[in-house]
From TrEMBL:
Originating organism: Chloropsis hardwickii
Pfam family, one: MARVEL
Main localization of the protein described in the UniProt heading: membrane
Location(s), subcellular: Membrane
The protein's name: CKLF3 protein
Length: 160
């Protein structure tokens, strides 16, 4: 009788409860946020090991922000906290990250000659592309949302 009860029961929560669900990891947003987090961490480590250590703060902040948003979306905090306009915050984060990564990558590649700075610059250009893809997708979602909201408003005013 214990075997039939334990077969239907869920496994006890452990370390696996901290991992995001597979559906989110397979989604486009989950993969982009994971790529942004990994690239930002690699760039951070490269800048620590390089002569361009003054640039290490931007990748650290972007890593922490991407990691926060990754777990916020994975645990569906965006559905629980409606006061924050999540797509707009994500769009602004991606735009600023793409611009900052592009600028510091150019500076790291052109100004410093050590290998770690060059690697950080190359990974920075890759991160610029990933963040640009993310803000393009987020921008399209934002525009569709705003068009949907604006098309509802004038029709409501015309009938009244």
């Amino acid at each position: 009788m214990e075997d039939s009860e334990s077969a239907g029961a869920a496994p006890p929560p452990g370390l696996s409860s901290l991992l995001p669900p597979r559906e989110f990891l397979r989604s486009r947003k989950g993969q982009l946020l994971l790529a942004e987090s990994v690239l930002s961490f690699i760039i951070f480590v490269c800048y620590i090991a390089s002569l361009a250590a003054s640039f290490m703060m931007a990748p650290l902040l972007e890593f922490l922000l991407a990691l926060f948003l990754f777990f916020a979306y994975a645990s569906k905090l965006n559905e629980k906290f409606k006061g924050v306009h999540w797509p707009l915050a994500d769009f602004l984060r991606c735009v600023t990250a793409a611009i900052i990564y592009f600028a510091i990558s150019i500076a790291a590649v052109s100004k410093y000659s050590d290998g770690a700075s060059k690697a950080a610059g190359v990974f920075g250009f890759a991160a610029t592309i990933v963040f640009a893809i993310d803000f393009y997708i987020t921008f399209n979602d934002l525009v569709a949302f705003l068009k949907q909201g604006s098309s509802d408003s004038p029709e409501g005013h015309k009938t009244e």
